[in-house]
Amino acid sequence: MTDGKAVIVVEGLSRRFGDVTAVNGLSLKIQEGEVFGLLGHNGAGKTTTIRLLTGVLSPHGGEARVLGLDPTRDGPALRGRTGVLTETPALDERLTARENLSYYADLYGVPRHEVPARVEGLLEEFELADRADEPVGRYSKGMRQRLALARALLPGPELLFLDEPTTGLDPVAAREVRELIVRLSGEEGRTVVLCTHNLVEAQRLCHRVGVLEHGRLVALGTPAELVRGLDRGLRVEVELSPGDEGAVGALRGLPGVLEVVEERPGLLGVKVASPRVVPEIAAAVVGAGGRLYRLQPQEPTLEDFYLALHGGKGGR
Ligand SMILES: Nc1ncnc2c1ncn2[C@@H]1O[C@H](COP(=O)(O)OP(=O)(O)O)[C@@H](O)[C@H]1O
Ligand SMILES: [Mg+2]
Q1: Which domains, ranges and CATH numbers included, belong to the chain?
Q2: Does the beta carbon of 42 sit less than 6 angstroms from any atom of ligand 1?
Q3: What pTM value is reported for the model?
Q4: Residue 237 Cα to chain centre, angstroms
């Protein structure tokens, strides 16, 4: 990630639909080369934000600069430099992958003489070359998503918007798409704006994330920064013989233990005030004659942060 050059600058951006304010005074900067995650519940305003940034919708307030351009006024120029993967990408089912890409290459204004090489390169890169001449109607979901991503890359974009690219994919296909995202940003240096519901994915892929709630940005930072702000002690997983009341009682009475939750027989979630209490847990279990199978401090995750933010059971 290079420092300092903002490819997206948003100031007070707003958009309403009737009585609903889908995006509400959003201000944000996204740097070149960054993978930026846009998180939030269904209806939080993620897709609307992307549509505003790509010029599909006009704002009712505020402004956005994307690659130095105004998406509302400079839509055509912007489309040649950005790739968009929408939530439910439409592909022509009757056409083959090769035909789909060639068709869209024309539409995106890729110079004619460059089309065949560009299309072949993408078919190879996205591992579709073997089946490039089959109608897309016969493709699996994962293959379709790879094709849709390949299509988004046709113009050779420096900036990519990916709206829930792994939703609905099986674990293997989802992992392939995640690996592609890593490659597109890491090796190829593109900026990626990624909407996702998947907090594990966001933590793994994103340099920074922003959380939207009713169109407002309620949190912004690197996953590590956000998690650091969680003031909730350290959680330790403790596995011992099921039904060992003596050991559980000893843990409950141990100084520095804030909470002991029996998550299932033999598995305790123990919240402690500091890492210094961890060895005391082992001593207390063994001291009470318990049998200890596992003792594992848990790093707080972006999911913990998200649940705490939304007042959910942030009990991890
Ligand atoms: N074209 C539209 N017409 C009316 N309401 C819309 C439209 N697009 C989005 N909305 C509303 O705006 C809010 C934000 O939607 P959206 O941006 O799709 O959220 P997300 O992508 O985070 O799930 C929701 O309440 C949604 O119902
Ligand atoms: Mg959406």
Answers
A1: 6-225 (3.40.50.300), 234-299 (3.30.70.100)
A2: yes
A3: 0.86
A4: 27
